[in-house]
Amino acid sequence: MREGLSSLAIIHVFYVILMVKMRVLFVCTHNSARSQMAEGFLRHLYGDRYEAYSAGTKPSHLNPYAVRVMAEVGVDISQHRSKGLDEFQGWKFDYVVTVCDQAKEECPFFPGGGMRLHKSFMDPSELEGGEEEKLRVFRRVRDEIKEWVEEVFGNG
Predict the structure, then answer these.
(1) For residue 15, what are the β-bridge partners?
(2) Domain residue spans in the chain?
(3) Minimal CA–CA distance to 37: which of 155, 137, 156, 131?
(4) Interval 44-55: pLDDT, tens
């Protein structure tokens, strides 16, 4: 084993050799924006290596601003829907990724989950203000999520 090779990279090499896609579950509170964008980016950028899913600890609805800003960068999440964690009971995941602190606290353990990852992103849905301000914040969070997904999962 090469020194400096992360455990994520080692696992990735193992799966590439076997030609098996790794399953990733992104979790946030409402499964309306952050986890949906992360799922969309992982599918779009690395769908040949990963099966991406998302869920919420308290699912609500898909945020139209998330759909809009993802479409701006060529990623269509318009057919996604908000899902609860219960829909994935009995599933096996290689990674369970919480993308907000509240979800990390509410879901400290997921049965069938492999490696736990956490990266907290601001909830753009919480913003009060006009449409341009909301779009600006959604775009910023979208770009942060994309950069993180590329950094963590694009090591192949």
Answers:
(1) none
(2) 19-149
(3) 137
(4) 999 999 999 999
Name the fold adopted by 19-149.
Rossmann fold (3.40.50)
Tokens of 130: 């006009």
Which residues are designated catalytic? 28, 100, 107
DSSP 3-state of 125: helix
Helices (H) and strands (E) in the chain, counts: 5, 4
What digits encode the pLDDT tens for the residues 94-110? 999 999 877 666 665 66
Distances (CA, A) of 46 to 32, 51, 99, 126: 21, 9, 18, 29
Residue 116: phi and psi, rounded to 5, are: -95, 130
Report H helices in the chain: 7-18, 34-46, 64-72, 101-106, 131-153
Q: Name the pTM for this structure.
A: 0.85
